[in-house]
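Q: Convert this sequence to C-alpha cells.
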Amino acid sequence: MSEATIIDGKAFAARLRETVAAEVAALKADHGVTPGLAVVLVGEDPASQVYVRNKGEQTTAAGMYSETHRLAADTPEPELFALIDRLNDDPAIHGILVQFPVPDHLSQDRIVARISPDKDVDGLTVTNAGRLASGLPALTSCTPVGCMMLLKDALGDLRGKHAVVIGRSNLMGKPMAQLLLAADCTVTIAHSRTVDLPAICRQADILVAAVGRAEMVRGDWIKPGAAVIDVGITRFPSRDPEKAAQGKTRLVGDVAFDEAKAVAGWITPVPGGVGPMTIACLLQNTVTAARRLNGIA
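A:
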C-alpha cells in the first residue's frame, strides 16, 4: 500500500486568504464596509503573543481593519469587561477574539459570555454553539471549520462515513462533531474515559485527533485508507543542540506521523496542516459577521 496523501493546509489557507481578500475588497467597493477584527491579549504567554501577532498581520494583509489590545497579566475582570463592552458597541469592529488561555484570576466562561454573539468569531458563545447544534447559521469555531474544508477538499462527499473525534472541548471537539453530523457522517466522540480507544479509532473512515498529547495516536490505531486530521500541537526543544540552546522548538502533533502515513489514505502534517487554516477561517468568520451586522446577503 502506498503512503498517505499529505493534506497541504498551508497551501489551502493561502488560497482561502486570497478569497477573503477579494470579498473584503468587494465589501468596501460595493457597500463601504471594511470588516474589522479586534484581538485582546491578557498577559505575556509567549505562544499567545505569536498567535496574536500573526492574526494582526494577516488581518491587515487581507485589507481588513485590525485592532490589538494588550493588557497586563493582572488586569482585573471589570477592566477587561469594560473593553469588551466598548468593542461590542463599536460599529467598526465586527469580530472580537480574546486570546486564551487567560491568567488564572479570570474566567474563560465569563469572558466568552460577555462577547456579543454577533461578533463571536471564535464561535464559543452559548448562542452560537446552540445555533450550530440546531443546524442554524452560526459563527463556528475556526479550527473545526478549517478541518471540514480540508476534509471536503480531499475526500469530496463525506456522507455515510464513520468519523471519530478524539477530544470534547467546546473550541474543537464538540463543534467538529456537529459539523461532521451536518455533513451526514456517523460520528463518535472519544475522550480520556473512552474504553479501548485504539479499537474505536480503527473503525474510523475519518479520524480527528484533538487532545494535545504528543504522538498519542499510533499507526496501528488507524484504519487502512482513513483520512487523519491532526489538530494537536505540542512544542519540544529542537533536536539540534545549538538551536535548542537558543530556545528554538519543534512542533509535534497528536498523531505519530511517520507510523500513520504508512497506513492512512490522507493525513495532515504538523506543522503545515490544520494550523494555517485557523487564522484563515478567523478572517472568513469576520467577513461573515460584517455582512450579517450590516444586513448584506
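The longest helix spans residues 9-31.
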